[in-house]
Design a protein that fits this description.
Number of strands: 23
Largest sheet: 6 strands, mixed, barrel
Distance between the termini: 43 Å
Oligomer: single chain
Length: 785
C-alpha cells in the first residue's frame, strides 16, 4: 500500500510539473537510447564465435617470423600443415582447412559471381552445422557441395529430399555439381560464415604443387584440441613437426595457435582466407565512451532538474517529517519518483532506438533490425540500464531533500543551502565530456579530410578500374585497343595488384619489398612522376625479361647510388637479376596509415594481371555502358565489375568515416544533453534567487548587468570543464593520430573551435533561463517584504 502511494504521488507531481518533467524525461530517454545502442553494438562484437559448442577448444595456426630487428606475425596455414599436424599430433582430435574463392553460378539462364569456401569433413562437426536437408557424407567428392538455406533460396535450389544440381563455369567450360545438403545459415556474429562449401579435394586436384609446400600460407586451418590437453602442448609439437626450410634459413619461424574466440577482436593477426572482416577496437572504444558519457550526462541532468522541481515541495517534505515520516520514507518517495521518470524514459527510448537503429547500423556496418531490441539479452541490458539510471539520477536529489531541515521548510525557505559543490562539479563534468567529444570529432574530421585530399603521388580522377583476370597476351592487347577506341578514353593500362616478397642484395641483406606487374602505359595512365630513367617500352624485348622500375623508397632502403642501369638481386620465379631502367617518385599505393614500402615493378608474365585502368577526359554512364559491352564481348559469361579509383581510395578509410559519423552524432547528443543539464542547474539557481533578481531590478540594474553578473557565476565552471576535457582530448587524440604515418597536428584551431562551440551554446542556455527572470514582475517576489 505504501509503495502504491509513493507511485501515486509521484505521478501526480509529474503531471503538475509536466513542462519541466517532459523535458527531463526526454533528455533521459535520449541518454538511455544512445547507451542502449552502444550496449547492443559492444555486446554483439564481444559475442563473436562464443556460441559454438566446441568453440573453447578450436584454434587456428599462427606464425611469428623474426629476422634481425623485424618481427612479423600473421595467421594462416599451408595445405600440408592442415594434413600433417592432425595426423602427427594426437591432441588434435578434429581439423579442417578453410579457404575462400569465387566462381560463376548459373541462375536461370544467366551466370552470376558467387563466393564460396573450401572445407574438410570435420568442419561440420566442429562448427555444429545444422543440416535441414541431406548431409555432406564423407565430403571427398570434388563434384559435390553443400549450401546455406539463404543461398539455396537465392539460387533457386529446391528444399526437397534428393540431390539437386547447379551449374558453374570457369569461363571456358561449364560443370555440373551435386548439392548434397542444405544447412541453416550461420549467425551474423561469427567470423566463419560460408554460403557455399566445396570439399577441399576440389582445391587439391587443381593445385597439386601447392599441396606439398610447407610454408605456402594461403589458407586457414582449424584444429579442435582435446579438452584434457592445452594449446601450449600442441604449439610445441607443431614446431617439432615443422621441417626446416632452406629458404627460411635466415628467418626464425615460431608457430603458434590463436583461439577461435580471439579472432574477431585481436588486431595482431589479420583476416582473409575465408575469415570475415575483423572488428575494430577503436570503434568499440568510441561507441562505449559515447554511450557511457551520454547516459552519465542524462542522469546528471535528471538530478539537477529534479532538485529544481522539488524546491516547490520543500514545505511538503517538512510537513511529512512533522507528522512522523522518517528520512528513509522521504528518501524512498523520491527514489520511487526517479524510477517512474526512468521507466517512462525507458519506454520512450525504445521509440528513439527504433528511429536511430537503421542509421547506426549503417555507420557501424551492421545488419540490425528492430527485432533485436526485443531480444532477451538486449532487453536484459536495457533493464540493467534502467536500474543504473534510477540509482544514478535518483539518489542525489533523494538524499538532498530527505536531509532538508524541517524548520526551514515550515518557514518557507526555498533555498537548499550549501555551496552546491556536487551540482557544480556535475555541470563541470558534463562540459568536460562535451569538450572532449567535440575536440575528438574535430580531430577525426580533420584527419579524414587530410587522408582523402592528400597527394598520393598518382591521380585517380576520372579513372575507372575494371576487375577481370586476363592471361592471354593477345586478348589483353585487343581488349585495350577496343577500349582506347571509345570516345573520351585517354589511356588504358592493365596491371596486377601489389604483392609482397623478400629482396636480397649482393651482401645478403634482406629487404621486404612489394612488387607488381604493369605494362608500358601504367605510369602515364596513373599520373606517376618518373624522377630518373625511363618507362617501359614494349619495343625493347629486354624490358619484358629483365628490366624493372623501382620507387624512391627502394633506392633509400637498399642505399643504391646512381641506380639506373644497375642490376639488382630481385628473383621471382624465372625473373632473375633484372636491371633498373627507371625510378618513380614515391606514391601511396595503399593506405596512408603506413608509409610507402619499397616497390619493384616489372613486365614479366609471372603474376596474373586483373586490374584494367581506363582514364577518361570525362566519364558518364553511357561510357560505362560502352566498356561493359566490350567486356562482355571478350569475357562473357563473367559479369562486368567496375569501380572508380577515387572510390577505391575513399574505401580505404571506410572505418575512419564510420568513426567520424558516430563521433559527430555522439558529440551533438552530448552537447544537447549538457545544455539540458545546464538549463536545469541554472533554472534551479535562478528560482531560488528570484528575490535577489527582483531587488536588483528595482534599484535600477539593467538586464545586461544582471545577465553579466549571473553569467560570471557559471562561466568559470564551464571554462574549467572545457579546459579539462580539452586536455584529455589532446592526450587521447595525439595517441590516436600516432597510428598514422601521415597525419595532421592537434593544432590550436581544433582547441579554439571546441572551446568556442561549448561556451557559445552554454551562454545561450544561461540566457534562455535568465530571460524569464528578467521579464518577470518584481512585485510578485517582493510583496512579502
Amino acid at each position: 500500500m505504501l509503495i502504491k502511494n509513493y507511485f501515486k504521488i509521484g505521478m501526480r507531481f509529474l503531471w503538475k510539473t509536466r513542462g519541466y518533467s517532459s523535458l527531463n524525461i526526454l533528455g533521459l530517454a535520449l541518454g538511455i537510447a544512445i547507451c542502449w545502442l552502444a550496449y547492443i553494438f559492444v555486446s554483439d562484437e564481444n559475442s563473436f564465435d562464443g556460441f559454438y559448442a566446441n568453440g573453447d577448444h578450436i584454434y587456428r595456426p599462427t606464425a611469428t617470423m623474426s629476422s634481425g630487428d623485424r618481427t612479423d606475425r600473421f595467421a594462416g596455414s599451408s595445405y600440408i600443415m592442415g594434413e600433417e599436424f592432425p595426423s602427427q599430433i594426437p591432441e588434435i582430435i578434429k581439423s579442417s582447412r578453410f579457404k575462400n574463392a569465387s566462381t560463376l553460378v548459373k541462375v536461370k539462364d544467366a551466370f552470376q559471381q558467387e563466393s564460396f569456401h573450401y572445407a574438410d569433413r570435420d568442419f561440420f562437426e566442429m562448427f555444429s552445422v545444422d543440416f535441414i536437408i541431406g548431409n555432406p557424407g564423407d565430403f571427398i567428392d570434388p563434384l559435390s557441395i553443400v549450401v546455406s538455406e539463404t543461398t539455396a533460396d537465392r539460387l533457386g535450389i529446391e528444399k526437397a529430399s534428393g540431390q539437386q544440381e547447379i551449374t558453374i563455369s570457369s569461363g571456358e567450360e561449364d560443370q555440373t555439381l551435386k548439392v548434397v545438403g542444405i544447412y541453416k545459415d550461420f549467425p551474423l556474429n561469427t567470423s566463419v560464415r560460408p554460403q557455399i562449401i566445396f570439399p577441399f579435394s576440389s582445391w587439391a586436384s587443381e593445385n597439386e604443387r601447392r599441396t606439398k609446400v610447407w610454408f605456402d600460407i594461403n589458407m586457414n586451418s582449424f584444429f579442435q584440441i582435446d579438452p584434457n590437453s592445452s594449446a601450449e602442448v600442441v604449439e610445441q609439437k607443431m614446431n617439432d613437426v615443422f621441417p626446416e626450410d632452406p629458404e627460411l634459413e635466415e628467418v626464425e619461424v615460431r608457430l603458434g595457435l590463436q583461439p577461435l574466440t580471439d579472432m574477431h577482436l585481436n588486431p595482431e593477426f589479420g583476416t582473409g582466407n575465408g575469415i570475415a572482416a575483423r572488428g575494430d577496437n577503436q570503434l568499440i572504444t568510441i561507441v562505449t565512451i559515447i554511450g557511457i558519457f551520454c547516459l552519465l550526462i542524462a542522469c546528471v541532468n535528471y538530478a539537477n532538474f529534479a532538485v529544481g522541481n522539488y524546491i516547490i515541495r520543500l514545505k511538503e517534505v517538512a510537513l511529512r517529517k512533522v507528522f512522523g515520516a522518517e528520512k528513509t520514507s522521504v528518501f524512498k518517495q523520491f527514489v520511487a519518483e526517479a524510477f517512474i521518470s526512468a521507466f517512462l524514459a525507458f519506454v520512450l527510448s525504445i521509440i528513439f532506438m527504433a528511429l536511430m537503429l537503421p542509421g547506426f547500423a549503417e555507420y557501424a556496418d551492421k545488419t540490425y533490425t528492430l527485432d533485436i531490441i526485443f531480444n532477451s539479452e538486449v532487453l536484459f541490458g536495457g533493464l540493467l540500464i534502467l536500474v543504473v539510471v534510477t540509482l544514478l539520477s535518483g539518489i542525489y536529489p533523494a538524499l538532498l531533500l530527505s536531509r532538508y531541515k524541517t524548520i526551514n521548510g515550515l518557514k518557507g525557505k526555498s533555498k537548499l543551502g550549501g555551496r552546491n559543490y556536487l551540482a557544480k562539479g556535475l555541470i563541470t563534468l558534463q562540459f568536460a565530456i562535451s569538450a572532449f567529444l567535440i575536440a575528438g570529432m574535430l580531430t577525426m574530421n580533420g584527419q579524414l579530410s587530410f587522408l582523402l585530399n592528400h597527394d598520393l603521388g598518382y591521380s585517380g580522377e576520372k579513372v575507372v578500374r575494371v576487375f577481370r583476370p586476363i592471361t592471354d597476351t593477345q586478348t589483353k592487347e585487343s581488349f585495350k585497343n577496343d577500349l582506347l577506341a571509345i570516345s573520351g578514353v585517354e589511356d588504358v593500362t592493365i596491371a596486377s595488384g601489389f604483392n609482397g616478397t623478400n629482396y636480397k642484395d649482393q651482401n645478403d641483406v634482406r629487404v621486404d619489398v612489394r612488387h607488381a606487374r604493369i605494362d608500358p602505359d601504367y605510369i602515364k595512365t596513373m599520373g606517376i612522376e618518373l624522377v630518373a630513367g625511363r618507362s617501359f617500352d614494349k619495343e625493347i624485348s629486354t624490358d619484358i625479361t629483365g628490366a624493372v622500375i623501382v620507387n624512391e623508397a627502394f633506392i633509400e632502403k637498399t642505399k643504391l647510388e646512381n641506380p639506373i642501369g644497375k642490376q639488382i638481386y630481385f628473383n621471382y620465379g624465372e625473373f632473375q637479376k633484372p636491371t633498373i631502367v627507371g625510378v618513380v617518385k614515391n606514391f601511396n599505393f595503399e593506405s596512408l596509415r603506413s608509409g610507402v614500402d619499397p616497390l619493384v615493378m616489372w613486365m614479366g608474365d609471372r603474376l596474373l594481371t586483373y586490374n584494367t585502368y581506363i582514364k577518361f577526359s570525362g566519364v558518364n554512364q553511357d561510357k560505362i555502358a560502352e566498356i561493359e559491352a566490350i567486356h562482355d564481348r571478350y569475357f562473357s559469361p563473367y559479369p562486368f565489375s567496375y569501380r572508380f579509383v577515387e572510390d577505391d581510395i575513399a574505401n580505404r578509410y571506410a572505418l575512419e568515416a564510420s568513426i567520424r559519423k558516430i563521433a559527430q552524432v555522439g558529440s551533438a547528443a552530448a552537447i544537447f544533453l549538457s545544455c539540458l543539464g545546464l538549463m536545469g542547474f541554472v533554472g534551479n539557481q535562478i528560482r531560488q534567487q528570484m528575490k535577489d533578481v527582483s531587488v536588483r531590478k528595482v534599484v535600477g540594474a539593467s538586464g545586461k548587468q544582471i545577465f553579466g553578473l549571473y553569467l560570471s557565476k557559471y562561466i568559470w565552471l564551464l571554462l574549467i570543464g572545457t579546459v579539462v576535457g580539452l586536455a584529455i582530448a589532446i592526450s587521447v587524440m595525439t595517441d590516436w593520430l600516432n597510428n598514422y604515418t601521415y597525419k595532421i597536428d592537434f593544432g590550436w584551431t581544433i582547441g579554439a573551435t571546441a572551446v568556442i562551440a561549448v561556451l557559445s551554446v552554454a551562454v545561450l542556455t544561461v540566457f534562455s533561463q535568465l530571460y524569464r527572470a528578467l521579464k518577470a514582475n518584481p512585485i510578485t517576489y517582493l510583496k512579502e517584504e
